[in-house]
Amino acid sequence: MAWVYLGVAILFEIAFALGTNATKGFTRLWPSVFTLLAAAGGIFTLSLALRTLDVGVGYTIWTGVGAIGTVILGALIYQEKITVPKVVSFAAIIAGAVLLKVAAA
User: Fold this and answer.
1) pTM over 0.90
2) Contact 86, 71 (CB under 8 A)
3) String of DSSP letters for 47-94
4) What domain range is 94 assigned to?
5) Distance between terminal CA atoms of the chain?
6) What sign does the CA torsion over 88, 90, 95, 100 have?
7) 44-90 pLDDT, tens digit each
8) How many domains are contained in the chain?
9) What pLDDT, on the 0 to 100 scale, is given for residue 14?
10) Cβ density class 49-84: b for 16+ within 10 Å, e for less
11) Do 80 and 24 touch, CB atoms closer than 8 A?
12) What is the membrane topology noted in the UniProt record heading this document (predicted)?
């Protein structure tokens, strides 16, 4: 169940990051409310996952996969560019997450 909680926390993390951009510096009410709720949801579900997972593994996967999702959706929603250095960085993050999972087993 911890991995399910972590997956939900990652979705909240992505929503939080994308929502932060939509707030325009927290000057827009509803995107700001959405962003704050997403942040709270992410922290809450991450805390549920960390009842079982090691904090180093859970937090690293949460931020790493969340960052990858944010960059991909940022490209789709905000037309941000995905460059070769970004792709190489994604690969490094994924490799690190896989190694953390293997090391925690």
Assistant:
1) no
2) yes
3) HHHTTTS-HHHHHHHHHHHHHHHHHHHHHHHH-----HHHHHHHHHHH
4) 2-104
5) 16
6) positive
7) 999 999 999 999 889 988 998 999 899 999 999 999 999 999 889 88
8) 1
9) 98
10) bbeebeeebbbbbbebbbbbbbbeebeeeeeeeeee
11) no
12) Multi-pass membrane protein
Check: CB of residue 14 under 8 Å from CB of residue 68. no
Cα separation of 24 and 31, whole Å? Answer: 9
Question: 51 — phi, psi (to 5°)?
Answer: -65, -25
Q: Which of 90, 58, 91, 50 is nearest to 71 (CA)?
A: 90
Of residues 70, 67, 57, 59, the one with CA closest to residue 92: 67
pLDDT digit string, tens, across residues 18-39: 999 999 999 999 999 999 999 9
Q: Are 13 and 66 in contact (CB under 8 A)?
A: yes
